[in-house]
């Protein structure tokens, strides 16, 4: 079967330019004049080529948009932007924010809220619930949802069949780990390095067991720490089971989103893996057919399967992670009106479609999943799984002190080989409480 060529980026974004040129902007889209302001848009590394073209297409006769690249790590992205905004930097106009940092930035007064009709345009009934919730703070729309992210269970269909695991039914982490351990050479791919994605895993496990890391987050530092619970112990039990299973990958304690990709289609012809990872995976493998680390051919690519994020406990629906990118406008920008106008353009349905088709970064708007472009680019059941997972997923704690919460959890739960249901939840609760109370340092 011949592989269909991917759509050119510029063609995918053409409609976005048309959207930006609507109504009052019509006269602003004809060309450029010297001396007009430049809006700096700080982006994370995902989808750079598409975002660069998007910045070009959303520039107008009144302003240009210039891309500024942030570090790869979400934590480092947050640090760089926080330093700029704490110094009241007027050159930070637009920023791509991991949703967990939106409350902190909004609480600090670093984001310019969208108001009136603009707020209604940014968050309307078309925005998926999981994505809409990430941009709200104190009843204000403080950012614009651009793309939404979630994790699913990726696997080799032949591996699941060999292990006797029925993937047409919901599966638990215990079942996945046992299935991988039963097949020589099979593994389970996760993100367990000491960084934000490890907290994503821990949080999803806790949420999937009916608990939470903290509650009453509106109370700020006085939030209730609830990780020392039966749900926390169930989460720790999953991590311990994987660590002891023999199905871990060699880099288990330093694993990240990219390290396990090559183990799905090993060059030695091994059975592959079960892997929990983000939506980019499908396009990654589709684009690497016939190359090292990718499927050997189309037949191998068609052996790639997907299912909903595993359950923490039998009988309880899983809570897939919620991620993505929200576009914030810097409160100290000298061009607030232009920046918010640009934010609407770079989060338009057409822009979201381009990011999904080109880069596997899925829409935050429900209608885009039904667009002809996405229906052509993805299997229908995979699109349904993405949309369902974003709607029904479990967000990380929505707190202005999320950075401290995340770092405190990482410090106790890492390395994953040391996690114990008997001690880790209790120890992490005590340390997190001390951090929030200002009695312990990270």
From TrEMBL:
The keyword Transport is annotated on this UniProt entry: yes
InterPro entries noted in UniProt: Bact_solute-bd_prot1, SBP
Pfam families from the UniProt entry: SBP_bac_1
Signal peptide positions on this chain: 1-30
Keyword field: Signal, Sugar transport, Transport
Family: Belongs to the bacterial solute-binding protein 1 family.
Protein name, entry field: Multiple sugar transport system substrate-binding protein
Lineage: Bacteria, Bacillati, Actinomycetota, Actinomycetes, Propionibacteriales
């Amino acid at each position: 079967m011949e592989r269909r060529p991917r759509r050119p980026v510029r063609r995918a974004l053409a409609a976005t330019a048309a959207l930006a040129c609507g109504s009052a902007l019509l006269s602003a889209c004809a060309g450029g004049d010297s001396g007009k302001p430049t809006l700096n848009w700080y982006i994370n590394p995902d989808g750079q080529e598409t975002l660069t073209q998007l910045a070009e297409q959303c520039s107008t006769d009144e302003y240009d948009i210039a891309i500024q690249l942030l570090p790869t790590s979400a934590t480092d992205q947050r640090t760089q932007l926080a330093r700029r905004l704490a110094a009241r930097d007027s050159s930070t106009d637009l920023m791509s924010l991991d949703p967990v940092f939106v409350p902190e930035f909004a609480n600090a007064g670093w984001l310019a809220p969208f108001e009136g009709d603009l707020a209604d345009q940014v968050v309307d009934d078309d925005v998926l619930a999981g994505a809409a919730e990430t941009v709200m703070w104190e009843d204000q729309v403080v950012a614009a949802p651009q793309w939404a992210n979630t994790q699913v269970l990726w696997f080799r269909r032949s591996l699941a069949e060999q292990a006797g695991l029925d993937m047409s039914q919901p599966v638990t982490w215990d079942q996945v780990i046992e299935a991988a351990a039963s097949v020589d050479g099979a593994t389970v791919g996760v993100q367990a390095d000491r960084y934000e994605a490890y907290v994503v895993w821990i949080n999803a496990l806790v949420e999937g067991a009916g608990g939470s890391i903290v509650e009453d987050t509106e109370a700020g530092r006085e939030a209730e720490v609830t990780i020392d619970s039966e749900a926390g112990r169930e989460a720790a039990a999953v991590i311990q089971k994987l660590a002891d299973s023999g199905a871990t990958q060699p880099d288990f304690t330093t694993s990240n989103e990219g390290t396990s990709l090559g183990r799905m289609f090993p060059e030695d012809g091994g059975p592959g893996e079960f892997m929990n990872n983000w939506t980019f995976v499908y396009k990654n493998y589709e684009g690497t057919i016939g190359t090292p680390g990718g499927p050997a051919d189309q037949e191998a690519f068609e052996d790639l399967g997907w299912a909903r994020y595993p359950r923490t406990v039998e009988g309880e629906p899983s809570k897939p992670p919620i991620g993505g990118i929200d576009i914030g406008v810097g409160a100290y920008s000298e061009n607030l009106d232009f920046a918010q106008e640009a934010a609407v353009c770079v989060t338009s349905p057409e822009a979201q479609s381009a990011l999904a088709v080109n880069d596997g970064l899925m829409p935050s708007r429900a209608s885009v999943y039904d667009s002809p472009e996405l229906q052509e680019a993805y299997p229908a059941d995979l699109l349904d799984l993405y949309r369902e997972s974003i709607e029904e997923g479990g967000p990380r704690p929505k707190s202005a002190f999320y950075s401290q919460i995340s770092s405190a959890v990482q410090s106790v739960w890492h390395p994953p080989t040391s996690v114990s249901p008997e001690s880790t939840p209790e120890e992490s609760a005590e340390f997190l409480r001390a951090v929030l109370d200002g009695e312990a340092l990270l």
